[in-house]
Design brief:
Elements (H helix, E strand, L loop, with lengths): L2 E10 L2 E11 L2 E6 L6 H8 L7 E6 L2 E2 L4 H5 L2 E4 L11 H11 L4 H14 L15 H12 L6 E5 L7 H14 L4 E5 L3 H7 L2 E6 L2 E6 L1 H6 L5 E6 L2 H10 L1 E7 L4 E6 L9 E3 L4 H8 L6 E2 L1
Parallel strand pairs: 3-8, 3-9, 6-7, 7-8, 12-15
Antiparallel strand pairs: 1-2, 1-4, 4-5, 9-10, 11-13, 11-14, 12-13
Helix pairs in contact: 3-4
Length: 294
């Protein structure tokens, strides 16, 4: 299976939400990474046909998805960032309702809904109103509804928002398992989720695709750009922050360690090279308002 996004452009007024965005996707998990306003949600909405590009095309196995949108929609599962529910519906009742909208028979819906409720850890509360669920539990209902029609293409916008670490681990394992024969596109601000399961990461900024590659490929791009600077002088620490992109400050009993990202070696004493982490990549390409202190 091959899904090709070809030169997608979408403007909202004078703002270019997507600007000649092109990428080819095959089976596996793809992480979509970028700051707010980068165009991630716009790309995903175009992939679901909820939003049409001003120009460009999306092609599945050689055929434009816009030629027969209904047939294409039957192949996709979608979890939007703002997922709404009927609060008075019980969990199982709500999923059966969505299953009916997706064209599943009553028998098929019963079996699929029970299976998915167990998969997302909500089977024991299947008779409770969704309106009484926590945000994380509602998110799991959203994940279940996206999987109801056994989609070939799964599009997930911030799917792990509100999930606790155990729930996120369960969800990542689920995606890894089902991505063997599906295209999964996962947009998230939680870098560890992408780092753990993505076959490739797509880094977006200002509606354009800046970088695409495996975890290893992208980290190799950061070779020689990450440094640790140790100092005991607050003034020197301030100067380093003023001159360089500091992504982390760790204060010890007798020293201050600053993690610096730079194209050149920082001009300071006690500088050592450091192994790049995936979060360093994000910080390198996007502005940081404040360094983290730990």
């Amino acid at each position: 299976m091959k899904l090709e996004l070809k030169n997608l452009c979408k403007n909202f007024g004078h703002k270019k939400a997507t600007n000649n965005f092109s990428v080819t996707l095959e089976n596996g998990v793809y992480g979509l990474l970028g700051p707010n306003g980068a165009g991630k949600t716009t790309i995903m909405r175009q992939m679901t046909t909820l939003l049409k590009p001003d120009s460009g095309d999306i092609v599945l196995n050689g055929k434009s998805i816009f030629e027969d949108e209904e047939a294409y929609r039957a192949k996709i599962g979608y979890l939007p960032q703002d997922f709404g529910v009927y609060k008075s519906f019980k969990a199982k009742q709500f999923l059966k309702y969505i299953a009916a909208l997706k064209g599943l028979s009553s028998k098929e819906a019963n079996e699929k809904v029970d299976y998915l409720l167990k998969l997302v850890g909500l089977y024991d509360v299947r008779k409770k109103p969704v309106g009484k669920f926590s945000g994380g539990m509602r998110r799991r209902v959203g994940i279940a509804q996206a999987l109801l029609n056994d989609p070939d293409i799964l599009i997930l916008d911030e799917p792990t928002a509100g999930l606790d670490p155990q729930e996120r681990t369960r969800f990542r394992n689920l995606l890894s398992e089902i991505s063997k024969d599906k295209i999964v596109v996962l947009s998230t601000h939680i870098i560890s989720d992408i780092e753990a399961i993505a076959k490739e990461t797509l880094i977006m900024k200002d509606g354009t695709l800046m970088l695409k590659g495996t975890h290893r490929d992208i980290l190799e791009e950061m070779d020689g750009k990450v440094f640790l600077v140790n100092t005991v002088d607050e003034n020197e620490a301030y100067e380093i922050q003023r001159k360089y992109k500091v992504v982390n400050i760790q204060r010890g009993v007798h020293s201050i360690e600053l993690r610096v990202i730079s194209d050149t070696i920082p001009k300071a004493q006690n500088v050592t090279s450091a192994q790049a982490r995936f979060e360093d990549v994000y910080m390198f390409y996007f502005d940081i308002e404040d360094a983290k202190e730990v």
